[in-house]
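User: Here's a structure from my thesis project, written as structure tokens. My advisor, Dr. K., wants to see whether a designed sequence matches the one we expressed. Can you design one independently, without my sequence as a hint?
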């Protein structure tokens, strides 16, 4: 029976009515709750929905979270020394302070998709950290100061981590291994005494793709066997690109070449190439880059010299397709600015954000790895 309410009329006559029973939100169909959860673009709204009651929490899995755009760390953010981190959400435009005591006195950089790279410069301890779930995956202690970026598969499926200096480890290993560079037929030293570095590291379909900074070639490596599967020559172009990004988009591997203005760090324009592979008797032949002028309903984010990612306008209608969003640091004493490059008219537009940005970023996720990688 519903609640009783006593009402008094002007002539003091007493009347009693029965109000409708309050709805029990836990009785809503689980499939409806799951559908609603997939429409929530703000990750904190998603978390609040799951916290309503046990029934809703059971109906909505962490994997139901709608596609997310990167969160970028705020520039000159020393907040992690106090146990929290500050990020700017590209999707919502909000600034988030995330408590994370594990990062105190650590060097934090990105990106490793849903993880950031944490490095203790005193103990040389390394780990992958998810600021939202507080998950921390231990890596072997660094053999030397690691300031260069790392690369991991988006879902850690291959369980390998690789640096641009061709150090690698498998999750659970106790030490890093240096890849035997002399086994690479293309290998050369740009200047004696300097280490070899690779740009544009990418994991895809069990292989690691690395853009050789010296030759411009893309080396495709089986990390497990430390062997080169094939080498893709540098795309033919009148100019030499400043930076090369390797990105997976709609099942294709793209090479995004950034050409800077002369004597400046600011881009003048971008070119995009698609990897084309020939096949003979199950072996790759004649690998090459084919220039494309249109990425249609897709847009790219270039968030670091070696890292980028692709998204669909269908998932993020607020963003413009056939465009490249990127960060530029015009002054070493200032943070990064956000820009958009239109592939059609080849023009660059500055975008307004409320804070200065760093180059470290991660893609928000509430999923955790189920395995314990320590052997």
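Assistant: Designed independently from the structure alone:
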């Amino acid at each position: 029976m519903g609640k009783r309410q006593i009402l008094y009329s002007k002539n003091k006559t007493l009347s009693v009515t029965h109000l409708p029973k309050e709805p029990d939100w836990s009785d809503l169909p689980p499939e409806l709750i799951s559908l609603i959860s997939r429409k929530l673009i703000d990750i904190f709204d998603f978390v609040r929905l799951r916290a309503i009651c046990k029934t809703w929490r059971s109906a909505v899995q962490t994997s139901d979270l709608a596609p997310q755009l990167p969160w970028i760390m705020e520039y000159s953010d020393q907040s992690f020394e106090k146990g929290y981190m500050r990020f700017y959400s590209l999707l919502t435009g909000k600034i988030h302070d995330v408590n994370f005591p594990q990062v105190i006195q650590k060097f934090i950089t990105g990106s490793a998709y849903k993880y950031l790279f944490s490095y203790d410069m005193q103990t040389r301890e390394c780990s992958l950290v998810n600021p939202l779930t507080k998950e921390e995956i231990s890596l072997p202690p660094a053999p030397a100061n690691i300031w260069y970026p790392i690369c991991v598969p988006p879902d850690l499926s291959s369980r390998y981590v690789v640096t641009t200096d061709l150090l690698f480890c498998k999750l659970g290993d106790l030490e890093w291994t240096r890849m035997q560079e002399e086994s690479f037929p293309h290998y050369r030293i740009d200047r004696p005494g300097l280490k070899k570095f690779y740009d544009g590291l990418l994991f895809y379909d069990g292989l690691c793709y690395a853009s050789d900074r010296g030759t411009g070639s893309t080396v495709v490596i089986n990390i497990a066997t430390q062997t080169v599967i094939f080498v893709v020559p540098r795309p033919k172009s009148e100019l030499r690109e400043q930076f090369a990004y390797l990105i997976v988009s709609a099942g294709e591997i793209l090479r995004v070449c950034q050409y800077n203005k002369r004597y400046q760090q600011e881009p003048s324009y971008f070119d995009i190439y698609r990897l084309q592979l020939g096949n003979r008797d199950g072996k790759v032949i004649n690998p090459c880059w084919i220039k494309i002028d249109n990425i249609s309903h897709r847009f790219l984010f270039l968030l670091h010299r070696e890292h980028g990612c692709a998204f669909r306008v269908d998932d993020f209608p607020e963003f413009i397709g056939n465009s490249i969003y990127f960060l530029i640091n015009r002054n070493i004493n200032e943070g990064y600015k956000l820009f958009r490059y239109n592939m059609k008219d080849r023009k660059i537009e500055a975008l307004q954000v409320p804070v200065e940005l760093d180059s470290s970023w991660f893609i928000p996720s509430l999923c955790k790895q189920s395995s314990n990688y320590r052997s």
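When you compare it with your expressed construct, this may help: The longest helix spans residues 30-37.
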